[in-house]
Amino acid sequence: MKRSILFKTLFFLLITTLWTFGAVSGVWAHGGHDHKAEPSISLPDVLAKVNETDIKKSLIWPGLTQTVKRYKDRGIPLTRAQEKVAAKKLLQDQINRHLLLKKADTMGIQVSSDKVDEEIDTVKKQFPSEKEFLKQLKLKEMTLQQYQQELKEDILIDAVFRRELGQGIKVTDQQIEDYFKKNPLKFSSEEQRRASVILIKVNPKAGSAGDRKARKSLQKILDKLKKGGDFAELARLHSQDSLGKRGGDLGFFTKDRMFGPFSKLAFKLKVGQVSEIFRTKHGYQILKVTGKKEGKKGTLENEKENIRKLLIDREIKTKSHPYLEALRKKADIKIYF
Fold this sequence. Notes:
Elements: H1 11-14, E1 46-50, E2 53-56, H2 57-73, H3 80-106, H4 113-124, H5 130-139, H6 144-165, H7 173-182, E3 188-189, E4 192-201, H8 207-226, H9 231-238, E5 249-254, H10 260-266, E6 278-280, E7 283-293, E8 296-297, H11 300-330, E9 333-335
Antiparallel strand pairs: 1-2, 1-9, 3-8, 4-5, 4-7, 6-7
Helix pairs in contact: 2-3, 3-6, 4-6, 7-11
């Protein structure tokens, strides 16, 4: 297992955990811009000055917009006071980010394009297809170049922490063995599948005619798929369940953790295959297998170095807060709201 970046952006995950009242948000979280839910507060164009550098409103506005939209979608819209608290937290994150990037520059740390590409490939694997990955970037109003730049900065920040805090951290064989014994499930897993579904509901009041209509509608979709149509796109256009807006993606699941008909088909079909139409209590559906993870049973011998890296990373994270505080004390920071 290759060493991961300690503080990744990974927009497709962090947009759902960017900021929560009473909790500390991910230090390097960023989000896209959604014009449907603008914050109600007014902020100055320059929010702060760190040494001689302006921290502009444009750096936090997309993340603030995502936060406002998320709470609004949950039916608990933020008050103006809560929006301001969120904005201040996002600003502090940007100040920290600026200081760490300046530190990376002072230390002469550089990042190759190959390293950035490697991280992009890791992100893409979390999506059913590259097309879906690019579509999500577009939905967040972020170009691939912008995302590459953010990942590059994350790698630089990660390198600062590793060089400044990782040196001298010692992990004993006994600590490794203890961790392995206490966390057996982390190193063993059942076989998993990833699948997407399209649902066409049946109107129970329409009788057999309604049943035939639903099946006919889904057959037309299946015919388009057989001619090369994109499953995720067709799911977004036609699927009549909450998964439709996500391209029908069910994510990864084990055989016993999924609705029976889905699980049976997912573990029967090969990756890339689409099922024939099948009936459930929800209506008529089709399923496409989009991924597969083999089961594994880890051993202490095989996992030893992975655990060592994990424990070192955990120690670095513990030291990161006081390190940031020390950087901030040395800087001239002025906040304007």
